[in-house]
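Case study.
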Amino acid sequence: MTRPGAEIVAYDDGAALERTVGKLASLPPLVTSGEIEKLRGLLAEAEAGKRLVLQGGDCAEALDDCRPDKVTSTLKVLLQMSLVLIHGAKKPVVRIGRMAGQYAKPRSSAGERRTVNGVEVTLPSYFGDLINRAEFTPEARRPDPGLLLAGYQHAAITLNFVRALVDGGFADLHHPEYWDLSFVRRGTLAAGLREEYERMTRTLADGLRFMEAIGEGSIDQMTRADFFTSHEGLNLWYESAQTRRVPRREGFYCLTAHMPWIGERTRAIGGAHVEFFRGVRNPVGVKLGPGATPAEVVALSHALNPANEAGKLVFITRLGAGAVRDLLPPLLRGVAAEGRRALWLCDPMHANGTVAGGRKTRSFDAIKTELEGALEAHREAGVSLGGVHLELTGEDVTECLGGAHGVTPEDLGTNYGTACDPRLNYQQSLEIAFLLAHRLSGEAPGGPRGPAVARMTP
Ligand code: PEP
Ligand code: CO
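After joint prediction, the assembly is written out as follows.
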């Protein structure tokens, strides 16, 4: 594996970079150390099997996506999925958005070649709106330090809106009208999914009333919608500018997000990203692809969680539908055998990419198969699956194939909007939530509660 450093982003205007980083370092933090500590506590509980984690959002947020409808629909689908999971797993769910800062993208190749007016042109790849712009022109593709500030500002605006919605009761179970699917008028939602969702919200509302009637104290905690943010900490100029000590606490906090993660391409031991993130108090995620060995993963746990604290390290496996059953158990056992603490999440998206009609896509079946394979592997290794990491959107996009509505290769062009990888659409996201909920409740999909996801999948 290569060892890309902070120089993964080659800015050519050093003075402008210095000015921007200085400004960024002087601005208030996006999140607080108190929130980060709270998340660490919740992740520690998830590690102990008392909570589930739902992490999701766009592959790449675009600055232009910072619109109320877009933010609301992502938040909404995550909240609805969490409700489905609470119901199925009978555990509280920790919600972590790939939001408010998911603006930097690693690329397999530093350059992109295209034919423009019959001439072969090579330009820097698009590395996300925090770094350069997607348009295929030399000006747009030039890494621009000004985007660091624009990214920070858009993250702040997004977070401000998310906090207001959450504080305003957007996700409070006591207001079932907010949880109603008609709130977002989904005429396209398959009848079976809608019925199941409505049955579930009714059951939950009844349960809630019952528990309140008997004075159950934990109900408030269970239903309060905390919401945390995460993104890939790829651009270390951005991350380091907002990393600081805070009064009355030990160590450094990376204050751009509650839980940054290190991507599959930048997780080399001794590489800049592991070196940087081993120095922060935040919980830190690490993606693990099919090349990860047990020894490497144990070494990562020593590097990133030297004191072996609960809630500090999150391994996010993305191994592929065909490989997960073989590759995951040795990783789980290797880490457990050394007594290393970590929370394990399954990302069933990133090793299941294909191309159809020139577009990047993923099949819903492969995503489902990897998730089911991960559940089995965890059961077999005796290590609980802490949750899922998904690329999704609350919109009716056509980017992943299959699902109840059977998105076909021909449909992909209908509403293909991702700035990077294909996302589950609103319906596919809910289907995955129901699938996981059924598995975690021990109930077979299509079982006694009537129409379920598996039956509707073509
Ligand atoms: C991503 O999460 O968008 C991503 C690039 O993941 P990975 O590092 O696992 O490839
Ligand atoms: Co992605």
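Observations recorded in class. The domain at 29-102+158-455 is CATH 3.20.20.70 (TIM Barrel). The chain has one domain: 29-102+158-455. We will return to this complex in the next lecture.
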